[in-house]
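Can you make up a polypeptide sequence alongside its tokenized fold?
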Amino acid sequence: MEEYRRLLKKFLLTIFLILAVFLTGAIGYRVLEGWPFVDSLFESAVTISTVGYEMVGGMTRVKPITKVFTMGLIFAGVTVVLYGVSVLTQFIIEGEMNKYVQVRRRLKMIEKMRDHHIVVGSGKTGKHIISEFMRRRSEFVVIDRTEEEIKRLMEFFGKEFPYVVGDATEEEILFQAGIDRARSLITTLPDDTKNVFVVLSARTLNPSLNIISRASDVESMRKLLYAGATSVVATAELTGVRMAMMATKPGLISFLDVVTFSGRENLRLEEIHVGEDSPLTGKTLAEIRLPQKYNLIVISMRKGGEYIFNPRGDTNVESNDKLIVLGKEEDILKLQENLRGSQV
């Protein structure tokens, strides 16, 4: 957006200078020689353009002060024209016009997004988050201070995605990313202090937003929660727990890796939301027969704020329940497509 503003300022400044010189010339001739305003405008245009057209009153009939004024007007007109040419050259040669179009297209794309995710930071952690969103076909916007990092990520994935260049602690940058329409915000900055400011700004702009923040150490977790974070992930704590489990329960870790990171088995955990008009509503798990029809296992079921682990077949599925299922990605996608088409 800063780039867009800079380009717009150049355009507006050029137009303003041209109009200012043009009107100054017209008013000057009107005052100095008393010519009609239309003749004064014509003389001003001729002088600024340096076409060499004879003056309205003839060069020998005008006052000496008018000649001096004309020389000054020519100098000012040439300067403004050269500045305008330089701006136009910059747009064409340096690709500024193309950048302007790209910025506008990107902002228009973000304006249409609803219920999306915002990722602050395109570093190593942000890279894994973006990869997961792409795999799940989730809509997201990336915020980073440098466009170069984002471009490198797009080259790595071989795919473009919407992004905003700027400081995520600034409210305007968050608004450009659609903070007021977003489902969640994930801040992955390595500096916990900056993460706190991002969380504070995001929580102020969208009180119902789901905010997840990275924390470099456990001590920062409390500050981030006070700032308004919904969840905080301490990287040091997670690394320590994972390394300990790899030493004590390597088989369990291998299975979790398969489920979490989609290994060769392509297994995936997914949360299925049961809406009011869902074909699952009012049926039991035995009647739905997810294992037989879709080869999916119901690991857990959430009713309100309570989880039911390994629910029985006679458990009723009600509106707003959530089913946690485990299975292959293609089977989960098939179930989701059938649910959208009201076929189970």
Remarks:
- The domain at 2-98 is CATH 1.10.287.70 (Helix Hairpins).
- The radius of gyration is 32 Å.
- The CA atoms of residues 190 and 284 lie 47 Å apart.
- The chain has a mean pLDDT of 84.
